[in-house]
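A quick aside before the break. I want you to see a complete sequence-to-structure record at least once, exactly as it would be stored in a machine-readable document. Don't worry about memorizing anything.
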Amino acid sequence: MSATRGHAARLAVWVRTAQWALDEFAFALPRGEPSPRECHRVADGLVQLAAAIRRYADEPRAGLPNGDGPDTAS
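That is the input. The structure line, written in tokens, reads:
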């Protein structure tokens, strides 16, 4: 597995983990359960995840001259 694919796999796990956490958070919101601290923690996590996705988007990709497209490096 190339380094880029490994990075993509780790990012995918992070995205799925965030999805699960956001599902739980969304379920708790209407009941008023999340504390202000928890709200800030979730928001901070989303900022970090967004930054990681942007970094991934800016990484050059093998396969196409402009770097777009699937990673074809082995």
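Two observations worth writing down. The chain has one domain: 3-58. Residues 69-74 have pLDDT under 50 and may be disordered. We'll return to this after the break.
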